[in-house]
Amino acid sequence: MNDNDNNTLQQLMVCHHCDLVLQKPPSVPEHHRVFCPQCHHKLLSHKPNSLERTFIWTLTALVFFMPAIFLPLLHLDLFGQSPSSSVMSGILALWQQEFYSVAVVVLVTSVLAPMLQLILLSYVTYSLYFGHKLPGLVRVFKAYLELRHWGMLEIYLIGLLVSVIKLIDMAEVVVGIGLFSFIALLMAQIMAVFSMDAPLFWRLLEQNKATTKELPQ
Ligand SMILES: [Zn+2]
After folding, report:
1. At 143, is the secondary structure helix, strand, or coil?
2. Mean pLDDT of 123-136
3. 120 CB contacts (<8 Å, ≥6 apart)?
4. How far is the centre of ligand 1, averaged over its atoms, from the C-alpha of 12 (Å)?
5. Predicted TM-score of the model (pTM)
6. What is the DSSP string of 181-212?
7. Residues lining ligand 1 (ion), CB within 5 A?
8. Angle, nearest 10°, between helix axes 113-130 and 177-195?
9. What is the per-residue pLDDT for 189?
10. Whose CA is closest to 52, among 212, 204, 210?
11. What would the pLDDT profile of 72-122 be if each residue is shown by its tens digit?
12. For residue 33, how far is its CA from the centre of ligand 1 (angstroms)?
């Protein structure tokens, strides 16, 4: 698939209710929503201050990233022992117990992919928000969108909550600061995705690309 095909695809959208394929509007004006002409299902709504809010939520998520990964999620009081575990120490324990492939999958989906995703999104939003022309913005944004399939923080959190519920009868479980950071990270990441007006981002990226090309060499 070449760049032109990619651009044509990005200008189209599908109604998830009735599968109608239609042209994406360049932007949604304030207080407006876009409805499907066939089934009248809501397709898009205006997202005020999208760029600014996406940038702030992405930075917030980055601030919580290190504490969420390295600080203890839980403290257990189990048969006189009191182990505590963070995301990173869990991955190391899996590796030491020779569950190599599981350790790598958890490392990629819970640490590397989400972190890279946040770094790429902050690069794009920083550049668009402050008007700094950083190189490779379109490619970085596409890489960010691709990586969204790899980050699985929410699944990690669900697994963690299930184990807390199971352990509650067997041991005294005290929630660690890592878990609060993890929840804050997840919330900030979800807010960043909800704040993002993708058609607006594409439009700004295209404008940015066009003006960069016009600059004298
Ligand atoms: Zn529809």
Report:
1. helix
2. 90
3. 140, 141, 143, 144, 147
4. 14
5. 0.77
6. HHHHHHHHHHHHHHH--HHHHHHHHHHHHHHH
7. 15, 17-18, 20, 36, 38-39, 41
8. 50
9. 93
10. 204
11. 988 877 776 667 788 898 899 999 999 999 999 989 998 999 999 999 999
12. 14
Rounded distance from Cα 82 to ligand 1 centre (Å): 55
Cβ proximity of 96 and 78 under 8 Å = no
**Alpha-carbon distance 152 to 157, whole Å?**
9
Residues 144/167, Cβ–Cβ less than 8 Å: no
CA–centroid distance, residue 24 to ligand 1 (Å): 13
Q: Which two three-digit tokens encode residue 190?
A: 């979800």
Longest dimension (CA), the chain: 71
Query: What kind and span of H or E run contains 16?
Result: none
State percent of the chain over pLDDT 90.
38
Amino acid at 111: V
What's the 74 CA to ligand 1 centre distance in angstroms?
Answer: 45
What's the pLDDT tens digit per position in 168-208?
Answer: 777 788 888 999 999 999 999 999 998 988 878 888 888 88
